[in-house]
Amino acid sequence: MISALPALNEADASQGRAGVARLAFERSGPRTVVRTALAHSPLRLLTPRNHGHAAWAYTSSFGGGLVDGDHLRLDVDVAEGATALLATQGSNRVYRSPKGCRSDLHARVGPDALFAWVPDPTVCFTGARYAQTLDMSLAAGASLVLADVVTAGRSARGERWAFLHYASRLRVAREGRALLDEKWVLDPAQGALPARLGRFDALATVLLVGPALASAREALAARVAGLPVKPRAQEILSASPLGEDGLLLRVAAVSLETLLSTTRDWLSFLPGLLGDDPWARRV
Q1: Are 161 and 152 spatial neighbours (Cβ–Cβ below 8 Å)?
Q2: Residues 53, 38: contact at Cβ < 8 Å?
Q3: Largest CA distance in the chain
Q4: Counting Cβ atoms within 10 Å, is residue 66 exposed (0-12), middle (13-18) or buried (19+)?
Q5: By the 8 A CB rule, do 78 and 111 touch?
Q6: Which residues have a Cβ under 8 Å from the Cβ of 239 and sit 6 or more positions away?
Q7: Is residue 55 within 8 Å of residue 47, measured between CB atoms?
Q8: What is the pLDDT of residues 201-255, one digit of tens each?
Q9: Peptide bond preceding 278 in cis form (omega within 30 of 0)
Q10: Residue of 9, 259, 4 whose CA lies nearest to 155
Q11: Which residues of 41-50 are buried (b: 16+ CB within 10 A; e: fewer)?
Q12: Contacts by 158-161 with C-beta closer than 8 Å and gap 24+?
């Protein structure tokens, strides 16, 4: 059961904040280590130990979410042969923001490296304006796991697709050549969101690119591509090949619980690549 999120004191939203952070991962013998972890408020970085060969990092923000005028930027470097996981300590909460707020993630993944970006869902409250950019640059032989989830908001409080604007830009390039460049926009100015999205309360994109994910892509493509769309289904799934070594998965679900069950199942191969389970050992 997803519990209702706490309300934000309006005084906390009186002034926006700018936060910049930098993460760098490198290979050290059989393991990957965090070489650099620098963050300026309101961003925080946590780098817990784990039992595998990969290095993990989690992001969080002071105040528990984004307020009006916030602009966060995170730059990530994954050196040659390294394996890194980046996730969040909790949901990305976006509070009422008439002027808007945004976050940008720029990642460079070196040769034969693996980078997994698997954050918790984005939850936009009533009156929120939010934009994000996910910009991934892959070297030869690099692999990428990416998940991006957005929800209807605090449905338990009657706030369902009640935000003012949501935009997500996803760009992935291999050796400077674009593999994917897309932008999602959800804006009531283009039509009432509850009516347009119907019974669905959560949307997700999952992207798998690179040689380290070949077997996972093959298995998932076979499972998802042939599924029929049934009337009043709890979720609608799709799978599309992306270039020679990529797979783009989508899901729209009637509840966040249903969607997360599906995306976690899709990513069930990830603990084997990391040497430990990031969902079993939260910060």
Answers
A1: yes
A2: no
A3: 54
A4: buried
A5: no
A6: 220, 221, 224, 225, 247, 248, 249, 250
A7: yes
A8: 999 999 999 999 999 999 999 999 877 778 888 999 999 999 899 999 999 999 9
A9: no
A10: 4
A11: ebbbbeeeeb
A12: 159/125, 159/126, 160/194, 160/201, 161/186, 161/188, 161/193, 161/194, 161/197
Residue type at position 224: V
Q: Which of 159, 277, 141 is nearest to 213 (CA)?
A: 141
Alpha-carbon distance of 53 to 60, in angstroms, equals 23
- Asked whether 124 and 97 are in contact (CB, 8 A), the reply is no
141-174 CB burial, b ≥16 within 10 A, e <16: bbbbbbbbbbbbbbbeeebbbbbbbbbbebbbeb
- pLDDT, residue 281, reads 59
Q: How far apart are CA 218 and CA 239, in angstroms?
A: 11
The neighbour count for residue 280, using CB atoms within 10 Å, is 7
Instruction: Kindly tell me the burial class for residue 37, based on how many C-beta atoms sit within 10 Å of its own C-beta (0-12, 13-18, 19 or more).
Output: middle
Task: Name which of 143, 136, 171 is nearest 270 in CA terms.
Answer: 143
- Cα separation, 4 vs 12, in Å, equals 19
Distance CA(65)–CA(92), nearest Å, equals 6
SS3 185: strand
End-to-end C-alpha distance for the chain, whole angstroms: 20
Amino acid making up residue 48: P
Name the strand (E) or helix (H) holding 273.
helix 270-274
Please give the pLDDT value at position 225: 81
DSSP 281: S
> What is the rounded distance in angstroms from the CA atom of residue 60 to the CA atom of residue 44?
5
Average pLDDT, the chain: 91
Q: Report the candidate in 254, 10, 258 with the shortest Cα–Cα distance to residue 152.
A: 254
